């Protein structure tokens, strides 16, 4: 079984789990922006505009709008991921936008997500982990997503990827894949159910599948 934890939502609100009363709430809707993490917003905005202009000239056939070539928040995500290298950000971003087109991300609907959820392949956990991060649980026996999807198309969106009680035969596969992910490989951890219980959740927030 796999557990994906996303980036923390702390910039939007205080912690949802109170240590005194253990009050549990679901995360509210909020727009997390990478702009909150930038130390020099003026310089980063110049780089965003540089990328945006290059994309308009060299990749004018790519879509525009949300998650398109002129989406400044998305551009900033990729600049941050590529340590503000304009050329590297453009290379990775254009690949991601093309993938979104081919995969049909814009056409996904609530019904599509519901039908996928019914298969039991994956689901979003009702509670955050102890670090205030949303949690996606993937049943690897039913669905094992490609690692490079997170590296190329959703950079800086994951906190940890946990492989819980992974079978021994999976280790050689991981060793072959690991070099392709470069620094992102450090997010992947192999752990036991007990580790998940002690380090990532409280008794109240622990997913049912990891209870005794």
TrEMBL record:
Q: Where is the CRAL-TRIO domain?
A: 52-212
The cross-references to InterPro entries, in alphabetical order and at most eight, read: CRAL-TRIO_dom (IPR001251), CRAL-TRIO_dom_sf (IPR036865), CRAL/TRIO_N_dom_sf (IPR036273)
Record's superkingdom? Eukaryota
Query: Which PROSITE patterns is this protein grouped with?
Result: CRAL_TRIO
Protein name, as recorded:
CRAL-TRIO domain-containing protein
Source organism per entry reads Gossypium barbadense
Q: What is the lineage of its organism?
A: Eukaryota, Viridiplantae, Streptophyta, Embryophyta, Tracheophyta
């Amino acid at each position: 079984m796999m557990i994906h934890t996303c980036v923390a939502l702390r910039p939007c609100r205080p912690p949802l789990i109170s240590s005194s009363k253990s009050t549990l709430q679901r995360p509210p809707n909020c727009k997390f922006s990478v702009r909150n993490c930038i130390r020099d917003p003026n310089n980063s905005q110049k780089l965003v505009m540089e990328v945006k202009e290059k994309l308009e000239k060299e990749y004018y056939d790519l879509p525009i709008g949300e998650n398109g070539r002129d989406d400044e928040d998305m551009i900033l995500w990729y600049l941050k991921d590529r340590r503000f290298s304009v050329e590297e950000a453009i290379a990775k971003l254009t690949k991601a936008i093309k993938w979104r087109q081919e995969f049909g991300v814009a056409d996904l609907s609530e019904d599509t997500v519901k039908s996928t959820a019914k298969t039991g392949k994956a689901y979003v956990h009702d509670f955050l982990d102890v670090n205030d991060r949303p949690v996606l649980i993937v049943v690897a026996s039913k669905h094992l997503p490609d690692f490079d999807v997170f590296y190329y198309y959703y950079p800086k969106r994951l906190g940890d990827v946990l492989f819980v009680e992974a079978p021994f035969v999976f280790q050689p596969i991981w060793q072959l894949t690991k070099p392709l992910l470069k620094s992102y490989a450090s997010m992947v951890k192999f752990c036991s159910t007990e580790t998940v219980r002690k380090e990532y959740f409280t008794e109240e927030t622990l997913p049912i599948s990891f209870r005794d």
